[in-house]
Amino acid sequence: MSDQDTPEVTFRDDMTVELIKHCASDTDVLWAARVSTKGEGSLEDIQADPERSAGLINFLMRDRHGTPFEHSSMTFYVNAPIFVLREFMRHRTFSYNEESGRYRRLEPVFYVPGPDRKLVQIGKPGQYQFVDGTDEQYKLATELIRESCRQSYRSYTEMLQAGVAREVARTVLPVGLYSSMYATCNARALMNFLSLRTKREDSAFPSFPQREIEMVAEQMEAEWATLMPLTHAAFEKAGRVCP
Questions:
Q1: Beta-carbon-side half-sphere exposure of residue 60 (alpha carbons within 13 Å)
Q2: Which helix (H) or strand (E) covers residue 121, if one does?
Q3: Is residue 10 within 8 Å of 34, Cβ to Cβ?
Q4: Calpha distance 87→241 (Å, rounded)
Q5: Known catalytic residue: 197?
Q6: Burial of 209 (0-12, 13-18, 19+ CB in 10 A)
Q7: Is residue 20 helix, strand or coil?
Q8: DSSP 156-204
Q9: pLDDT grade, residue 48 (50/70/90)?
Q10: Is 234 exposed, middle or buried (0-12, 13-18, 19+ CB in 10 A)?
């Protein structure tokens, strides 16, 4: 098979996150919390002004009364390398649906680290850090990644053209291939995700996320902060600890 028979391979170093739908606001936290003391009277708080109750949200976050933060819903579309989505799915409080290589031909779009991606790991597990690589290391890594991805997709295409089933042919493809999924969560689940998958100097507990999943988390956090600004502010004030 010639290279002319293989679709052109595309390389990216970014992540795509879109908020598809949501039912999430700071008010959701208020009526869910107040049912414990007001019973049916909490229905009056469904249309309440959350700005007047920022103190309650801060109290719930600080004292880790977590369930009122579960009465919200956000669905994100995420397009990222497979290795990012596999890390993502360690968070089992989310619901997921991902595109399937059994039922569709996978597109030749692959991840290659951008020039600002730190390449060198120093130290041992639990006590390591990442630092910038040299120009030579970056050139070597990106050239070998591109070469490997092109070869794997040629093999994938050749098997498909020979009549091999998609679910078998996909076995040659690397985890740097981009895939897409829908991920649905509530605010409490998202805070747990953000506490682990973002690195902040002001966090109460240190986190050491892989940079690629942190790129996804940062975009999700920006969307959530717009939907629930008081809850997001309380989360930061409490040291980014999930309640």
A1: 25
A2: strand 120-124
A3: no
A4: 20
A5: yes
A6: middle
A7: strand
A8: HHHHHHTT--HHHHGGG--TTBEEEEEEEE-HHHHHHHHHHH---TT-S
A9: confident
A10: buried
Which class does domain 3-107+178-237 fall in? alpha beta
Residue with tokens 């997921």: 96
pLDDT bin (cut points 50, 70, 90) of residue 41 is low
Closest CA to 101 of 216, 181, 19: 181
Residues 6+ apart with CB under 8 A from 159: 168, 169, 172
Quick: pLDDT tens for 186-222.
999 999 999 999 999 999 998 999 999 999 999 999 9
* Residue 30 φ then ψ, to 5°: -70, -55
Residue with tokens 């009122």: 68
Residue among 34, 197, 200, 211 flagged as catalytic = 197
Q: At a CB cut-off of 8 Å and minimum separation 6, what does 170 contact?
A: 101, 102, 106, 156
Cβ(210)–Cβ(81) below 8 Å: no
Say whether 65 sits in a helix, a strand or coil. coil
Dig out the tokens for 179 from the structure.
């895939």
Question: How much is the average pLDDT of 83-107?
Answer: 97
- The pLDDT > 90 percentage for the chain reads 82
CB-based burial of residue 191 (10 Å sphere; 0-12 exposed, 13-18 middle, 19+ buried)? buried
Rg value, the chain, Cα: 22
Cα separation, 92 vs 110, in Å, equals: 26
CA–CA distance, 119 with 136 (Å, rounded to integer): 11
